Amino acid sequence: MHDMPAHVKIVATFxxxxxxxxxxxxxxxxxxxxxxxxxVVAVRARVxxxxxxxxxxxxxxxxxxAALLPFVALGERVEVAGLSLSRDGLLAGWNIVVKGTxxxxxxxxxxxxxxxxxxxxxxxxxxxxxxxxxxxxxxxxYAGVVTDDMRRMRIARESRGFTAGHxxxxxxxxxxxxxxxxxxxERGERVYVAMVSRGYTGRLPLVxxxxxxxxxxxxxxxxxxxxxxGGVLAWWLAS
Length: 239
Fold this sequence. Notes:
Strands 1-2 form a two-stranded antiparallel sheet. It has two domains: about 5-120 and about 210-239, no CATH class; about 130-195. The protein has nine helices and two strands, in the order H-H-H-H-E-E-H-H-H-H-H. The protein is flat. Strand 1 (about 75-80) and strand 2 form a beta hairpin. With about 240 residues, it is mainly alpha-helical. Helix 7 crosses helix 8.
């Protein structure tokens, strides 16, 4: 899985997520099947559960939103643990959580088995607009640089006895954020001038024309293919 071409894995992940999204929210067995498939992929790819759990924190705001739906949605009410909840809200919240979680985990597995440069090559081979590829390339390259700048600014503030602890410190933090923005903008200008002076013409040489192994597409199609078969079967049994 780690050696499979990036664009093949991207297509397989997109197809799997599409199957998940199109699955009716009441096909509970189908979602259990999808989760089992992702678990098999994680084991085969040797991605630890702790890694998945740590990276899945990005989903927390959506889970909180979904948890509020049973309380605020209208329609038929049901009693759950002494609480009056909306039936439609429960189904809507379940729909958001289960589909979002499966999509996030699939994306985490893709990122965990593919390095950033290979992902860029993959999206370029899939004919993604060059400007978008370049934006992603610069973002990946300079995210660490900006993070290091933030860390150095925080250390500088703390070495002068400043520690943000209440709303009165918002002004100082906002000034630091503004200074970081100006510094990043000026660095971007310098980098652009340096690239142009070295022959940059508006397109980064990222394309890798290496041949795709014969069985790569077949292996990648197993995940969305099995998901589709299991989803249709589960929906048929539920109906």
